[in-house]
Each structure stands twice: as C-alpha cells, then as structure tokens.
Specification:
single chain; about 250 residues; about 45% helix; binds 2-phosphoglycolic acid
Length: about 250
Amino acid sequence: MRRPLIAGNWKMNLDRAGSVALAAGVAARAAEFPKADLVVCPPDVYLAAVAEKVAGSKVGLGAQNMYFEGSGAFTGETSAAMLLDVGCKYVILGHSERRALLGETDAIVLKKTQAALSAGLVPIVCVGETLAEREAGRTHAVIEEQFKGSLASLSEADIAKVVVAYEPVWAIGTGKVATPEQAEEVHLDLRGMLSSRYNAAVSETIRLLYGGSVKASNAAELLKQPNIDGALVGGASLKADEFLGIAAAA
Ligand code: PGA
C-alpha cells in the first residue's frame, strides 16, 4: 500500500513570522492524521526557522528547488547537502514555474534529481502539460517526454525513492482543477511508463501526487482515485486549516 503524501508548496509567499506561524499551525495538529505523510516546503530563507517549528512533529520539511552541484562558485544556488543540513528531507524539482520561467529543462531536472538522491533527499519531481498541449491532444506525448528526460535514466534503486507529481500547468493557481478522471488517466499512464521502463513492482511502489488547485473541498474525490497517492498543494497550503483539510481527505 502506498502511503498518502500531502506536500505544501508555499512558493515565494509569506514572511518569516507568517512562515513560522503556519508551520506551527500545521505541526500542532499533524498527529490527527496518522495515515498521511505531511510535508511543508517554505522559501529557502525560512527553512531553518520552519525546521525549528516542525521538529518533533510528524511534519517533514522540504525545499522548492536546489542545484545539482555539491559546492563551489554557483552564486545564489543551494546544494542538497545544505538542504539536509537545515533539516530537509524532501525537495520539489522541475516545478512547471521553474521550467517555464527559469529555463529548467528535463536534463537539468534529471541532474538535480540524481544529486538529491545521492545526498539522501526525497525528490518530488513535477511533470505536466500546458493547456495548449492538452487541447492539441499531446498530453501523453508531453508527459512521456518529461518522464524520459527527467526520470527514466535513473537506476531502478533510485527511481523507487522518487515521488512524482502530475501538475497540469493549466490547473496551477487557476482554480481550474483537473477532474478526478483526467488526473487518474495521467497517473495511470505514468504507472504504465514506470512499468515498461522498470517493472510492475517499481510502478506499484512509487507515489504519484496530483497538483493544481487542490483544496480541502475537492481533495477527497481526487485522492479517492486508485492511482492518486497524495497532493502537491500551492495556494491552499498557505492556510493551516485548509492544508489540514486536505490531509483529512487523505
Ligand atoms: P496551486 O499550486 O495548488 O496553487 O494550484 C500547485 C503547485 O504549483 O504545486
């Protein structure tokens, strides 16, 4: 059985006090949801402050990005070791905002994923099609290309440690959530890709999250789908009650 994972991607929001308060709010009630793993991903500069608040709770800490090099002259970047050092267990990689706005390619996402894994972080690797791609009937092709470029070169031992998030770009921050059927269809497709590249056991083990306008009121029907193992939540993760409402649905 795959254990549900609900991850909050705070993006570039909140200040220090707001981050600490939100982390405290989530940590205070996290024990009410023993069946799900909960993760919060604050901006890097607040990781340490949030780490203090979630310490001793079941809430895991994640970053929203990292660089693939170990150390050196990479101005402005953060390494996997640094994330581990401040208490991270997870890192979101290849988010569509980074792919679209910051030039992140599948090849870069792959290198980051490999670096995260060799450092011992759990990568949450994002894939997803744009509206134009969906309307052109290219959803499968786009997901397959992202899968091949950012994941399929990993060893079997490595891929088993990865979490994959399907986030249709048209559903992110738009309030336009994918229907449970649309999401399930892509998740099933991803399982098929995992199974043909690796094997059925790998495909059955890996947690596949859905992301894109998930909130407490629509989480249950999404999470009820057999191949949706959790959620990557943006806007709705910025309020403890709303985020925990999603955890309750899991
Ligand atoms: P959203 O963002 O929940 O605000 O749509 C999801 C994400 O980008 O991870």
